[in-house]
Design goal:
The chain is an all-alpha fold. It is built from six helices and no strands. The protein has a single domain, classed as Ferritin, core subunit, four-helix bundle (Ferritin, Up-down Bundle), CATH 1.20.1260.10.
């Protein structure tokens, strides 16, 4: 691969990540609102703040290379977010919902880790040392978020396994009543 071709790929992948992070900024509040576990809700809210920083870091990289971050829509992230929304729309019981939200969030984190891993490798090859530091920092934060989700899932998945259909029916009735009052 020629150096210029790698640079084009690098910019294209950065734009994809920029789109992905911005889509996530819009999706995380909905995931936090849907979460029934206070710890999971707090995790989504914390990651939203972190995601704003990820967007800011990408903007710094784009400013340095004098390229607009706009112009690409990340279809992968759109699909992952759609799957998470479908989980919410299915209206499962609270434990099942939280377990599903964790699964959806971990798929997002793994997708982001793959993206940041690739652009980090490209930045290193291209001698983009400042960008490399920013990209690796974001990659590490994505790994930390994934680890936190795994810890939460250890508890929440057990709760979901212990719940029964009565819990689900009661939860759905409670949520419908709350929605009707709103």
């Amino acid at each position: 691969m020629k150096h210029s071709a790698l640079k084009e790929l690098y910019v294209d992948e950065l734009k994809d990540l920029y789109s992905a992070e911005n889509q996530l900024v819009k999706a995380l509040p909905n995931m936090a609102k849907a979460a029934t576990s206070p710890d999971l809700r707090a995790g989504f809210e914390s990651h939203l703040k972190q995601t704003h920083e990820h967007v800011s870091r990408l903007e710094k990289i784009f400013n340095k290379i004098a390229v607009s971050p706009k112009g690409k829509h990340c279809k992968g992230m759109k699909g992952l977010i759609t799957e998470g929304k479908e989980m919410i729309d299915e209206d499962p019981g609270p434990e099942e919902l939280d377990a599903g939200l964790i699964a959806a969030a971990q798929r997002v984190e793994h997708y982001e880790m793959a993206g940041y891993g690739c652009v980090s490798a490209y930045a290193k090859l291209l001698g983009e040392d400042q960008a490399l530091l920013l990209l690796r920092k974001t990659f590490e934060e994505e790994k930390e978020t994934d680890a936190k989700l795994t810890q939460l899932s250890d508890r929440i998945n057990v709760e979901a396994a212990d719940s029964d259909d009565t819990d689900r029916a009661n939860s759905q009735a409670t949520r419908k009543a709350k929605t009707a009052r709103a």
